[in-house]
Write a sequence for this structure.
């Protein structure tokens, strides 16, 4: 079953870039953005990562957790997060490869990475909105996240 609006988000426990684990249960009690990003160290993916970093205070003002998930290794995520000064979790969905992206319904089998999809969750972990990019070359805008978060 994939993530659907109005349903509980699929549970996960993944390794953060600092080798700690983060699970969906850890995020409950606050709104949450689960942001799937396909390729660390690429132009559009890095712009999205940095846009979240640069707008983190606005997201935190709306009592929101920010979590990025890639299908890359925690080591790659660590180097990427460190290079960009990111403090929020950047989780590795590397092994089993893409299992969380598959559970959420955004894994691209042909490319072996997630599509650009963001799941906006309420405090109880219910999916309230799903924001997709038009294609791999188009970044999602933080304003769309803020608008979605303000709607509930």
């Amino acid at each position: 079953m994939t993530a659907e609006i109005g349903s509980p988000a699929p549970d996960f426990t993944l390794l953060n870039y600092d080798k700690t684990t983060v699970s969906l249960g850890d995020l409950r009690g606050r709104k949450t953005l689960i942001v799937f990003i396909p390729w660390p160290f690429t132009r559009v993916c890095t712009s999205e990562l940095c846009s979240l970093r640069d707008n983190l205070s606005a997201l935190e003002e709306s009592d929101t957790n920010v979590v990025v998930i890639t299908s890359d290794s925690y080591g790659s995520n660590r180097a990427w997060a460190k290079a960009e000064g990111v403090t929020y979790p950047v989780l590795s969905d590397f092994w089993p490869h893409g299992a969380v992206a598959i559970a959420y319904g955004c894994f691209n089998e042909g490319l072996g990475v997630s599509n650009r999809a963001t799941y906006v969750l309420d405090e109880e972990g219910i999916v309230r909105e799903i924001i997709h990019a038009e294609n791999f070359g188009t970044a999602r805008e933080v304003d769309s996240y803020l608008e979605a978060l303000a709607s509930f």
Observations:
- The mean pLDDT is 97.
- The helical segments are 24-27, 43-54, 56-61, 74-84, 99-104, 142-150.
- Residues 11 and 25 are 8 Å apart (CA to CA).
